[in-house]
């Protein structure tokens, strides 16, 4: 229950590795699903409108 120096060496396991479809470090090793592109869950690419910034056209 001590903090400080003993807690520093706790990050040895990887949860996410490189996805072979999108190339990002978002493929979960245990769940076998990519959080960026949806590989392993769906054959379609994962895409949401809230991810991209909408360009505002002042003429409309």
Automatic annotation (TrEMBL):
Keywords: Metal-binding, Ribonucleoprotein, Ribosomal protein, RNA-binding, rRNA-binding, Zinc, Zinc-finger
Binding site for Zn(2+): 19, 22, 34, 37
UniProt cofactor(s): Zn(2+)
Name this protein carries in UniProt: Large ribosomal subunit protein eL37
Cited SUPFAM superfamilies: Zn-binding ribosomal proteins (SSF57829)
NCBIfam families referenced in this protein's UniProt entry, alphabetically: PRK04179.1 (NF003214)
Pfam families to which the protein is assigned, alphabetical: Ribosomal_L37e
GO cellular component: cytosolic large ribosomal subunit
């Amino acid at each position: 229950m001590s903090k400080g120096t003993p807690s520093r060496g706790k990050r040895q396991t990887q949860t996410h590795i490189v996805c072979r479809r999108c190339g990002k470090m978002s493929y979960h090793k245990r769940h076998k699903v990519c959080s960026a592109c949806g590989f392993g869950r769906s054959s379609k690419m994962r895409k949401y409108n809230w991810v991209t910034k909408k360009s505002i056209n002042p003429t409309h």
